[in-house]
Design a protein that fits this description.
8 helices, 4-stranded antiparallel β-sheet, alpha+beta, Beta Polymerase, domain 2
Length: about 300
């Protein structure tokens, strides 16, 4: 395998960054390398990169040593300009994203969501591409007292590519086959919508080789699988995943205040029993915790 450094060392967020191109036979991979930059980078860094999909490689990195962080993207060499643009925006907004993750800095949920809707909604509607808002922002749009840290979009394979084009200037990861530690191998992208100092991280993907989706799966990449609600926000009508998805996630993560708010809304509006039973059945909650949630939706 041959490796070529395309950019770096560069600075950002208390880290040193390098962009490299690895080639093995016909396969080429771009890698974001990130390491603690110390005082030379205005460090130490304010936080970790684990929540942004980065991992430590199994062996010491030729650029960053044994504690180098990696994000890898399987793309042809001709994609280098697009990869470099995302790489540069990533390092420019990294300090802001870390501050948001630690709750030191508020996430620009309202302005960021509105910007995404203005850019994405008209084009996808015109082209007949299914998409929706999921995750914590979906619950926030429906009135839940939650505090989103990012904006997750659900869509199809065609939608993934189209959203990447529509949010192109905001990308912090190129549209590519890549490994998301929480989702496996996907075709996806990430963006930071807003300014370098204020905005929201946006994520969207589909499984790279999708099999038969699990019943009512929120992120299957197939139309008509997730259970959705129609909501309005700042003059826009859109679809959002039902509150039961957020409820089970909040319970699994031990976010008690979010659970209380979500339960209140679900009781007021009526629970989707089939969806709740399905989500609880494959959750990490104990039988006792599942029974309590089911009972609480009817209390």
């Amino acid at each position: 395998m041959t490796t070529q450094m395309l950019s770096g060392p560069d600075l950002g967020g208390g880290f040193l960054h390098q962009l490299a191109l690895d080639q093995e036979g016909e396969q080429t991979t771009f890698t974001f390398h990130v390491q603690d930059g110390g005082s030379d980078a205005g460090g130490p860094p304010k936080g970790t990169l684990e929540g942004f999909g980065f991992v430590h490689p199994p062996s010491p990195c030729m650029f960053g040593g044994p504690r180098c962080w990696h994000r890898r993207f399987l793309l042809p060499v001709l994609e280098a300009p697009r990869v470099r643009q995302a790489y540069n925006r990533f390092r420019f907004v990294l300090e802001t994203m870390i501050s948001q993750a630690s709750e030191e800095l508020p996430v620009a949920v309202e302005s960021g969501t509105l910007e995404v809707l203005q850019r994405v909604a008209p084009a996808l509607a015109h082209e007949g591409i299914e998409w929706y808002v999921g995750g914590s922002v979906a619950a926030w749009l429906q009135g839940a007292a939650v505090h989103p840290r990012d904006l997750d979009l659900g869509t199809t394979r065609a939608g993934v590519d189209r959203v990447a084009a529509l949010l192109g200037e905001y990308l912090i990861e190129p549209l590519a086959p890549t490994d998301w530690p929480t989702a496996g191998i996907v075709r996806g992208a990430r963006a930071f919508v807003g300014t370098f100092k204020a905005g929201i991280r946006v994520e969207w993907s589909v499984p790279l080789e999708p099999g038969e989706p699990r019943p009512l799966e929120e992120w299957s990449g197939r139309p008509g699988v997730a259970r959705l609600e129609t909501v309005t926000f700042r003059g826009h009508t859109l679809r959002a995943s039902r509150l039961e998805y957020a409820l089970v996630r909040a319970a699994e993560k031990g976010r008690a205040q979010s659970v209380v708010s979500l339960l209140q809304l679900i009781r007021e509006r009526g629970a989707d029993r089939a969806l709740l039973d399905t989500l609880l059945g494959r959750s990490t909650l104990s039988d006792e915790e599942r029974a309590k949630l089911v009972a609480a939706t009817s209390a």
